Predict the structure.
Amino acid sequence: MGPPPVVTGISPKEGPPGTRVTIRGEFLGASATDLIGLKICGCECLLSAEWKSKNKIVARSGPCKGRGDIIVTTKSGGEGTSTVQFRGYHESIGPVKESAVWVEEAAPPSLPWGRRPMSPTAYTPPDPLGLSTEGDECKFPEDELNELFPDGSGKLSDENFQPGWYLLEHHSNTSFEDLKAGMVFLQRKVEGQKEGQLSFLKANTGAVMDQLDRLVLLKNMYEDDQRKNGKEPLPSLQAAIEESISLADSLFSEILSRKENADKTREALSLLTRHKFLFQLPSSIDKNIKKKEYDLVVNDYTRVKNLFGNTDVKLFQKILGEIDKKIEDLKQNLYIRMKTMPINVQEQTKYIRLLISLNWEGDAAWTAIITRKEYLMNLMNKVRDHFKQKEEQESGEKGRRKAKEADSECSWSAQRAEWCAAACGALAAELHALWPLARRYFAGELAGAPADPQRHADLKEMITTAVQQFSEHTRACVLAGGAAPSADAARARLLANLRSLREAYESLLKLDLPSQPLSVVEKVIFDYRVHGMTVFLQRAHKRVKGLVDKETWKIQEFSDYGAITDLPQLLETHLTDALSSIHKCVYATGRRETPLLAEGSEPLNILQKHTQQILLAFVSVLQELALQHDDQDFNTTSLSVALDQPLGEREAGARWQQRLLIAAANAQYTRRCTLPRLAAAFESFEFPKPELALQTTKEALSNLESSIAETYLEHKGDPLVGTIEPSMYMGRHKIDPDAIVDDARPYVYEIINNLIAVHAEVDSICGAACSRYVRDISETVCEELSRLAACAPAPPRAAAFRARLEASLLRLACAAHLTRKAENYLVETLASIPPLETEEEKKRMDMIIQDFKKRMELQLACLNCDIETV
Amino acid sequence: MSKKPAAQPTLHKVIMVGSGGVGKSALTLQFMYDEFVEDYEPTKADSYRKKVVLDGEEVQIDILDTAGQEDYAAIRDNYFRSGEGFLCVFSITEPESFDATQEFREQILRVKNDENIPFLLVGNKSDLGDKRRVPLDACRERAAHWQVPYVETSAKTRDNVDKVRHATAPPPPYHSTIQNAYFSPKHLKIFKKNGHSHVNAYRSNSI
């Protein structure tokens, strides 16, 4: 705040209104805009003020009168003070006087020749000295006059009239000569008044006499008149006047009443035209409603409310009432329309806005939101009911028509897919409408701010409920059982359902919904994916189980682990199929979805479990296949080879022992090759490896192999061993004990032949794996021999020799297949036989053995041939 | 004439007189606002007032800048009546204005009816030395004759204006040196008394 302005100079210091005044001083404002006030003698003169510098302002004085300060006000310094004063005075302006202000010529204030009567205030008595004061603009300072004549007055009519004041005020410039002349004039006037009545009468005798005559004449006339008309002339006059009044009334009353009527009509007409808008409004509202131009209606209504809302006129109130009724109807109508579903959001928003602008009592937007939600719920229920009904209908028809299973399945899944898509579409579409509406509602775009903070929670709950219902329905729809007709169809259906679910989810994500409903939908998708995975795995499981019937025992190839059928291949195919389906259909993770096979998650466990089940099912399939046989089969095959039917008589590949062996080979192949390949498949699909399942399966397979081996041995070795004893003692009593022993007994050959048969069988199927079976059988054979040798009483010499020979021959024959245990048995047997006593005997033994070798070369080769060479 | 004796500083009323166009307003504005106005605009009657320190006492000087033109001669008496001191200005380039000082002097004396009224003869436009047409001697002679101080000033160059402004020392009156306090309080006191008596006399006469 700068220093306040001070006015120290004024040029000129006095003048009539409109005088151009130069004001000087200090701090009169830093700029023209800083100057915000200028008062000269209390008159605001800012309008004419012209700011020149901080020391100078030029302005024109206002219509002020008297002496007064010049007050400058600036923004920077506030209201200022003045050390000098300006005096304004009003000039009397005559025709020869210049004036800065415009004088209304029509009413010259004091023109002596003016015909108009002068107003009393403007009346100035003529100068008593008979001198003109015009042109005397030199006013004697009023304050000085006041000072000189403290209780005097300059007005001639005042009691305290002071001639000095008067002269100073009016004649300060009059020359002394003039004043003297004025004095003479005044004296004459006074003397003229003093001369008295006598001289006056003298001078006017004629006129006085004349007046007297006239008065007499007047008196006479009056008396005459009185005689003529009686003393009272008034009643007759009054009667005449009354008569004329009534006549005038009768003449004009009609015209007047007509005029009145016309006036009234005109007034009414002008009222009508003036308020045409109001009167036409009801019909225009109807018209606009018919044309659906609600905006116009609202506009008109608001206007009419503003214009006539507070009217006291009955007619207007009536019309307003009518309009209000129409508007109420319209409101109801709009409200119903807003609530009537289906309706798109734009339209609904439009209705809401209209309702708001029509001052709807309720919360229109909220109602709309609730309605939408109800509609969504109903829609979903309807969708469900519709499809349920359709299904029932079809199942009814199916019952009647006994349509093919596959067909119905197909239609069923198609129905379900349709249902799912419809539900998804409904949810997405309705939430798309509902959520923006709600958002706009809460943003205050509709009906101002939401009234209740609870509404937020309500809305959230509404959406959550809707989504939950949706999830229930879709769960009922897609997760319900029902076997898929074929893998392709199932996959297609699953993909389609998943796609519609995901589309719905995507659209909900785009809506920026709260996370809770989203997670519900996501859960549905996730569960559906898990469901899909389970379905695929169950299918694989089923198919693997069905492999039992698929086994043709046709040998597909000779692997390192023996001849195998296509079972392991089928297992692999089925499982890989399932895995690839899973990978293709459900493994892929959509936006904001949980990965299907997260570490330690439920689906992973399911996958592991199912894999294990499938693999174990396969194992049990193998087992069943291997050990499945009928007793007859067993009986025929349980006979010794010698008694057995020739190989050619059986169906090729259908022989039980062969199947057993093939199963074993399959098991081994599965264990060694297929399982690692499956593991690799898991890896290639980026699924976690089902380690536990693989391990369990491996163990199960090993067990299976062992049990198969045992079974085989049981069924192959036991009869073989059983034949030894009878054969050994066959025709024993017929043999001369002292006869020269030159050959082994036939049982030895039988054993060898049997062994060859087993070897051949095993070899034909198991390849390198056969050694185990042959070994086991040789072992049992040796054990039996040793047992027999131990049981036999001390044999005679020849018998001993023969026994030794036989043992040696057997040892020779089985050399390739003897285990340590078998060796021990043979050594034991040999030890229990008395040793050879003579060289000759030894020689003979050697000879026989050589001979045996020569004779049995083929057989020995059969037994000892290396598997690899086959 | 000040009627407010209280806290208000003493008021001295000074009147600028002289012919039209000699530079009364220019001198006044130079004294008041240190500015020189080039434009010529005939004055009617201007009023200025400022505070100055005279002889250690703060006083207000009220300057009445009057019209020099003959058109306004009729109203001069009114102004002169309220004056307590006079600056009679003429232009040294204009002999007519110098001659007119005689009339002004007479009129003032007639109105004030006081031979000892504070009066200063001022020869203005001293910066226009080459156009000088009123000899300095004549000026001094007249001042001496009137027994008033004489000073030559230039409103344009502000020559001697300060001297008028800062006249503080109170030597005996009617000295012809510029330093002599034209605004001397003593002077003014005397004048005040005289003024009153004069007014009273006037009043009694006029009745």
